[in-house]
Amino acid sequence: MWKNRYDGESLRYETEENDKVTRFVFDRGEMASEESGAGGIRYIHGDDRVLCSERENMCMGYHIRDEAGSTLFILDRERDIRK
């Protein structure tokens, strides 16, 4: 079963699918982050794109993109290419 929950500004703040919950945080109407519960990955957004992904407050990588917005690679905290 899939459930979506919306706030007073009609922004989706939570999605639940088969007991897995994903929460969304907005800043001035734009998505700032999304996270799945219980040790899941959190994605930090900026300019409509994922800037950083982290797990349990440890940065997993910075997403480097081309002009079209496609992910070229992901850098770790030491700026080494991870993917």
Structure description:
By secondary structure, the chain is mainly beta. The protein has one domain. The protein has no helices and 8 strands. It has strands spanning 2-6, 12-17, 20-27, 30-36, 41-46, 49-55, 58-65, 71-75. An 8-stranded antiparallel beta sheet has the order 1-2-3-4-5-6-7-8, with no helix packed on it. It is globular, with a radius of gyration of 14 Å. The model has no long low-confidence stretch (mean pLDDT 76).
Give me some keywords for this one.
single chain, 83 residues, 8 strands, 63% strand
Short précis:
This protein has 83 residues and is mainly beta. Helices cover 0% and strands 63% of the residues. The protein has one domain.
Write the layout of secondary structure elements.
Elements: E1 2-6, E2 12-17, E3 20-27, E4 30-36, E5 41-46, E6 49-55, E7 58-65, E8 71-75
Antiparallel strand pairs: 1-2, 2-3, 3-4, 4-5, 5-6, 6-7, 7-8
> What is the terminal-to-terminal distance?
33 Å
Quaternary state, please? single chain
Helix content: under 10%
The biggest beta sheet reads: 8 strands, antiparallel
Radius of gyration: 14 Å
Q: Low-confidence runs (pLDDT<50, min 5 residues)?
A: none
Quick one: overall form?
globular
**Nearest-integer average pLDDT:** 76
